[in-house]
């Protein structure tokens, strides 16, 4: 591999004005096509085989059209309306403003007018008529009052502020979520302007109110920090800009591919954020690794072109294998069987692939374009000691010597520290982002809070119970439904149940349960679990089947399913990476300790994230359950990055060991050469990821923090403390590999040993000569 990369590095360096325009053309072409056909990103937190699908089947069979509300492509909208403080919506002035708003909605051009929009006050009156109960002015102590009036769109059941909050569900003429335009979204909000001026609170929630999150500021902060770090690492300004330039081109191309994919696929809104995190961080890291090696080779090679070839042939090989671990980890998310994770993983892998491509193909051309100006102007007092100089004494060498003197002590300190940080992970709770996760001041968050105030927090995640009575004898159906309702009503965490609605065919019934707590609360998840557990007994007794769906049930199902996938996924990724690292290091123990060290850093990352985001430590964010897909995404990304640092740091240690140094001195020498690059790469990663905490999206915040923490723990404690200590303690055994395995493994030559004889060969004048020159290697 190193030979082929060497050939390409020299060719790209010399033919820079061909390579660079090709990349720019590709960026413009993909960007233009992607922007022209792109559709909005959208979330679909569903997956096959969930328990909630049974309810959907019953709805489709006996209540046609009812399951449409759970269609990820459906365009939904709910207006939550509140009276001024201390007033009621039924007060004459507020009632008039509400009626005018309803009339305006009924003439709104994007509203489906096949069914008129109903005033919630009038709808509430109609709810009580079949049982001769007036939900507005009737006797609230009647036994049937709660069951009948609980489905009213006006909060008549409130004991503290009744008749002050109402909801209006609207059906739009827009067919799919991806068809919603910015103008549609703005118009759907502005239609309530007159009602707001009249003193009413009106907030829009539902899919029509959702906007895709974009980065921007976070990426700029990450880039700014990266520039400073690389300027210090290289001791020059121009060299600091080159990795950023490759990152922007690689990321721009990857995002264009993702936009291209939205035309056919339902791609989650978090995907471009994830791609930005991965693309920026990896592109900058990989480019910096190669540029650092190029700087060293310039002092030994006969020409800059040869130096570029050698840098790409050596560091480029490590970059490819480091990138492969990230790609494998992300692409493997598709085996979890969750649609939104599959797309996030695949397009995250696309971003990682472009990071590798720009590093090994575009970067040598840019090095050729900048020529002798690449490491100018030099910065005084910065990067005074070059870690590639064997005679220099760097901080990395000093720290490595400390580890070498007391390897057992440093190993114990690192393991104990990570173990203490990991302890809070035992209480980790998972959920999916709902209205409560949106930033304060947004329509989605305000609607959630107003609905909670009027109807209770559980109203934001009602449980829809669909009962199939097909196999229940006619004379037992009423008793079966009654027993089911009584059981559900008596479960801890259930607030109340609505009245049952029979299907037109008489073979099913439908009612709604309102929990005490919100959709992501553990009490609500336990309630769903208990409610489903009774089905087997009731089926044996009556022949009745039922399913529970709704936001709460779906969230609980997805969280439980994802939690169950973590161990299989981790096993798959770790196994694949282990095999890859055996190829790279030609060792058994080094890849094994690399994987075990990752488990330590991952546990510490989960613990720290639980403390900050779930427990609200330091008050940095509002406490929330961790988003359900965070653990798997975190494992995939940080595992890939961890193996990056393992490859960058330990390959140099192996190179020194192979060249005759003892295990201890090989560790110190490899640390001396690689510590600055790994430190700089980790600081850049932490900056890029950590900057996403500035976004309003709670998913971006938690993911950014978790990734930054994961990189910190893995790079600075595991890779730079625990692993070097282990290498010293294991001695020569660290590099042991069975002879039979060594014989059958392909020699991929990551260290570039095959290039040793090529360092002083004349520079070829053309690709043909270059091919002849290296054909026998």
TrEMBL record:
<dbReference type="Pfam" id="PF03176">
    <property type="entry name" value="MMPL"/>
</dbReference>
<keyword id="KW-1003">Cell membrane</keyword>
<feature type="transmembrane region" description="Helical">
    <location>
        <begin position="220"/>
        <end position="241"/>
    </location>
</feature>
<feature type="transmembrane region" description="Helical">
    <location>
        <begin position="346"/>
        <end position="370"/>
    </location>
</feature>
<feature type="transmembrane region" description="Helical">
    <location>
        <begin position="705"/>
        <end position="729"/>
    </location>
</feature>
<feature type="transmembrane region" description="Helical">
    <location>
        <begin position="273"/>
        <end position="291"/>
    </location>
</feature>
<feature type="transmembrane region" description="Helical">
    <location>
        <begin position="592"/>
        <end position="614"/>
    </location>
</feature>
<keyword id="KW-1133">Transmembrane helix</keyword>
<dbReference type="InterPro" id="IPR000731">
    <property type="entry name" value="SSD"/>
</dbReference>
<feature type="transmembrane region" description="Helical">
    <location>
        <begin position="671"/>
        <end position="693"/>
    </location>
</feature>
<feature type="transmembrane region" description="Helical">
    <location>
        <begin position="248"/>
        <end position="267"/>
    </location>
</feature>
<feature type="transmembrane region" description="Helical">
    <location>
        <begin position="406"/>
        <end position="426"/>
    </location>
</feature>
<feature type="transmembrane region" description="Helical">
    <location>
        <begin position="566"/>
        <end position="585"/>
    </location>
</feature>
<dbReference type="GO" id="GO:0005886">
    <property type="term" value="C:plasma membrane"/>
</dbReference>
<keyword id="KW-0472">Membrane</keyword>
<feature type="transmembrane region" description="Helical">
    <location>
        <begin position="312"/>
        <end position="340"/>
    </location>
</feature>
<feature type="domain" description="SSD">
    <location>
        <begin position="236"/>
        <end position="369"/>
    </location>
</feature>
<dbReference type="InterPro" id="IPR004869">
    <property type="entry name" value="MMPL_dom"/>
</dbReference>
<feature type="transmembrane region" description="Helical">
    <location>
        <begin position="626"/>
        <end position="650"/>
    </location>
</feature>
<keyword id="KW-0812">Transmembrane</keyword>
<dbReference type="InterPro" id="IPR050545">
    <property type="entry name" value="Mycobact_MmpL"/>
</dbReference>
<protein>
    <submittedName>
        <fullName>MMPL family transporter</fullName>
    </submittedName>
</protein>
